[in-house]
Design a protein that fits this description.
Layout (H helix, E strand, L loop, with lengths): L3 E5 L5 E2 L12 H4 L2 E5 L1 H6 L1 H4 L33 E6 L2 E8 L10 H13 L4 E5 L3 H10 L5 E7 L4 H9 L3 E5 L3 H15 L2 E2 L7 H6 L1 H9 L7 E5 L4 H15 L8 E7 L4 H8 L25 H10 L3 E5 L1 H15 L5 H15 L9 E5 L21 H7 L2
Parallel strand pairs: 5-13, 6-7, 6-9, 7-8, 10-11, 10-13, 11-12
Antiparallel strand pairs: 1-2, 1-3, 4-5
Helix pairs in contact: 4-5, 5-6, 9-10, 10-12, 13-14
The structure holds pyridoxal-5'-phosphate and zinc ion.
Zinc ion (ZN) binds next to loops.
Length: 403
């Protein structure tokens, strides 16, 4: 028997899980995204919660009492359990930095892909498909490579070379499509659902968020159950930020904490779709805008988890901000100088967001803050081409320099 039910975020109708059920048909695939709901009262009394035996370095499956599947994949022991560093940054002591660039495919998306693969195995699927700005696709392709199931990937042809290389090396069937992410998403969703493949598209599959929420669980246990005042994260489709809220909410619901942080979503000023919807206020109405940014992972004009993202961020008294491409590039460079961590553009935006909010005096030195760095900078080195030194030196000049 299943340990959860599914509930529509808009009409609140409840569903029993079944293969092929991804969203509430009456509300449609953007308004009708589904929440995965567990029996929190029973979980609260279970030994997994009461004994509080957690391990800062264990994989995300240590939280299986709040997950919709069990680990079965080759990589599952190594997904999650990523470091939570503390740095003195921008005048704030001990800023928490959750660095998910150290997952198997080097991004936060492995948390979701691992769950998708295990659910696909549960459901007897033999093909998985995914449209992505790059990271979700490379994550699925890599984690799925050893399972024997096939992977069909749909990405914009413009994705960074590092992510494309990950896809090709993993042996996935790669469709590098001449179009934007939003165009690729829609056409590939039609194809994949018609074919009956298992869907790993952001937001549509409610189980993806379940994997991603484990990042919040880890922030809590790794910080000795002290919940920070603020958590900042980059936002594209809105699933990662929604997952963080759900993770903090669930640990509170089962009595492991007594607080949910204010979560702040950081978007790119060139394409700030969720920010626009949130700032307009209720009823939250999905939009589709056209724009661009160097932060390819959050270059999303038609966000799919916009309803959850806005509803959850309102519930925790959070909000959305945006950064220019110049501010994003500065954030990558400064984060690297201050911490040694190399983040891809979408991974560095929480640092840029913190800098902005400190400047605006919305966050002060007495606040506790966590930055969620979602992707490794090595995936997109072209992004920093203009701001890193690429000069060389002759042997003669080198000897002269150190005479
Ligand atoms: C590195 C990175 N950060 C942030 C995000 C944003 O996640 P979401 O699209 O769920 O808002 C993504 C999504 O692709 C990503 O790859
Ligand atoms: Zn509905």
């Amino acid at each position: 028997m299943s340990n959860h039910i599914l509930k529509c975020i808009s009409c609140k109708k409840e569903f029993d899980p079944k293969p092929g059920l991804y969203y509430c048909e009456s509300c449609g695939y953007i308004m009708g995204t589904l929440e995965v709901i567990y029996d929190y009262k029973t979980i609260k009394k279970s030994s997994s919660v009461t004994e509080k035996k957690f391990d800062n370095k264990a994989s995300m499956y240590q939280f299986d009492f709040l997950l919709p599947t069990k680990p079965k994949g080759k990589f599952d022991d190594y997904v999650g359990g990523t470091p939570l560093y503390k740095f003195n940054l921008l005048g704030i002591k001990d800023v928490l930095v959750k660095y998910d660039g150290s997952n198997p495919s080097s991004s936060y998306k492995d948390r979701a892909s691992s769950i998708a693969i295990n659910r696909a195995i549960d459901e007897g699927a033999d093909i998985l498909f995914c449209a992505s700005t790059g990271n979700a696709a490379s994550s699925l392709a890599i984690l799925n490579a050893p399972t024997g199931m096939r992977t069909y990937i749909f990405v914009p042809a413009s994705i960074p070379a590092g992510k494309r290389a990950q896809l090709e090396i993993s042996g996935a069937e790669v469709m590098a499509v001449e179009g934007t992410y939003d165009e690729v998403y829609d056409v590939s969703l039609d194809i994949g659902l018609k074919k009956g493949w298992y869907c790993r598209h952001a937001a549509i599959n409610p189980y993806l968020l379940e994997g991603k929420k484990t990042g919040a669980f880890e922030i809590i246990i790794q910080n000795d159950f002290v919940v920070p005042d603020y958590v900042l994260v980059g936002v594209g489709d809105g699933t990662v930020i929604s997952s963080l809220y759900k993770g903090f909410w669930e640990f509170k619901e089962v009595g492991l904490t007594d607080k949910i942080p204010r979560i702040i979503g950081v978007q790119a000023e060139g394409i700030p779709a969720i920010k626009e919807v949130f700032d307009k206020g209720k009823p939250y109405t999905p939009i589709a805008i056209i724009g661009k940014t160097i932060a390819d992972s959050i270059s999303v004009g038609k966000p799919r988890d916009v309803i959850k993202a806005c509803t959850y961020i309102e519930a925790c008294d959070g909000y959305f901000i945006s950064l220019t491409d110049e501010e994003i590039l500065d954030a990558i460079v400064e984060l690297g100088k201050e911490t040694g961590l190399f983040a891809e553009p979408a991974g560095a935006v929480p640092y840029g967001g913190l800098k902005k909010l400190i400047y605006e005096e919305k966050i002060t030195e007495s606040d506790t803050v966590c930055l969620v760095i979602t992707g490794n900078g090595l995936k997109d080195i072209n992004a920093v081409e203009g701001v890193i030194n690429t000069e060389s030196i002759s042997i003669k000049d080198l000897e002269k320099r150190f005479e």
